[in-house]
Amino acid sequence: MYKIAVIPGDGIGKEVMEATLHILDASTIGFEYTFADAGDELADKTGIPLPQKTIDIVKQSQACLFGAAGETAADVIVKLRRELDLYVNLRPVKSYPGTKSLFEDIDFVIVRENTEGLYSGIEEYTEEGATAVRVITNKASERICRFAFEYAVKTDRTKVTAVHKANVLKKTDGIFKDNFYKVAEEFIGIKSDDKYVDATAMFFITQPKMFSVIVTTNLFGDILSDEGAGLVGGLGLIPSANIGEKYGLFEPVHGSAPLIAGKGIANPSAMVLSAVMMLEYLGEIEEARKLEESLITVLTEGKIVTEDLGGTAST
Q1: Which of 192, 213, 231 is the last residue of a domain?
Q2: Residue 292's domain spans which residues?
Q3: Does 17 reside within a domain?
Q4: Least confident of 12-21, 77-86, 229-238, 305-314
């Protein structure tokens, strides 16, 4: 029996979470859910988007499923990442049948550093405008690169690509690149190379199959992840994992989607695939494959799919 923290959050987060828990309950694994609150609606009621009680519930669980947060996302998910030291943001970019993927057989993963970079939150106004500080440390760079190589080994992938802009950001991305190749020396069986972030953005469109595992810094990873989603049919099909030494939090990347919230038409695929990633994290590989293959069957048949995939089915 796994103890799972469940944070439905705002908007369609609640709808796709309900659908996903319904599916998980049909598995052969036992789950004990503890529901917790966070997001815009809670902030409107209490003035606090992420209470300490919710953080404690996640810490007392073996994994967390998170739906979506609206305008308070920075105060919720970013804070959870910091509080729980979820230093890895893992975003698979994979094409599925029956979707609007631009290419067939795309299957790569973006490993994004989750705790520093330009998202460190160090900003200040100046007389001329404002300044933001980009924080890159040896510790965080080495840690995220090591995770990327270990993930490649674990998932039978053969290459890891570092994405940076060290020709311009010579000191910060220089540190990131140096740590990448330092870690790469320990993984003789895994190929390693590096690319500039602007070139990578182009290669996503022209040669996406050249990638297997990408490791990069916070802002670059955020942008490339959404570009990757565009390659394979949009944000409604993209899951993500936030992973640290002790905790794992799994969420779709589509946000709360207030324009369609409450209509029952949201595509739950990204939330279902986030549950697949949670099962993998828990070591339940067979159940993870069952769940993913079931979803692939539904997408391939194309009979019961939501409006964004050309169907008329409800969430």
Answers
A1: 231
A2: 1-88+235-315
A3: yes
A4: 229-238
Contact yes or no for 296/99 (Cβ under 8 A): no
Let me know how many helices (H) and strands (E) the chain has, helices first: 10, 12
Tens digits of residue pLDDT in 259-291: 999 999 999 999 999 999 999 999 999 999 999
At 25, the pLDDT band (50, 70, 90 cuts) reads very high
Residue pair 268/16 in contact (Cβ under 8 Å)? The answer is yes
pTM: 0.93
Nearest CA to 87 among 246, 307, 310?
246
Alpha-carbon distance of 275 to 239, in angstroms, equals 8
| Three-state helix/strand/coil letters over 20-77 | HHHHHCCCCCCEEEEECCCCHHHHHHHCCCCCHHHHHHHHCCCEEEEEECCCCHHHHH
The residue with tokens 């029952």 is 264
Q: Distance between CA atoms of 309 and 63, rounded to whole angstroms? A: 30
Residues 189 and 74 in one domain: no
Whole-angstrom distance, CA of residue 284 vs CA of residue 32: 16
260, 217: one domain = no
3-class DSSP assignment, residue 34: strand
Q: Clarify whether residues 117 and 66 are in a common domain.
A: no
CA distance 121 to 270: 28
Residue 94 domain-assigned (yes or no): no
Q: Please enumerate in sequence order all residues whose Cβ is within 8 A of that of 118, keeping only pairs 6 or more positions apart, or say none.
A: 132, 134, 218, 219
Q: What gap in Å lies between CA 98 and CA 313, rounded to an integer? A: 14
Tally of domains in the chain: 2
Tell which of 206, 231, 256 closes a domain. Answer: 231
96 located within any domain: no
Q: Are residues 52 and 111 in the same domain?
A: no
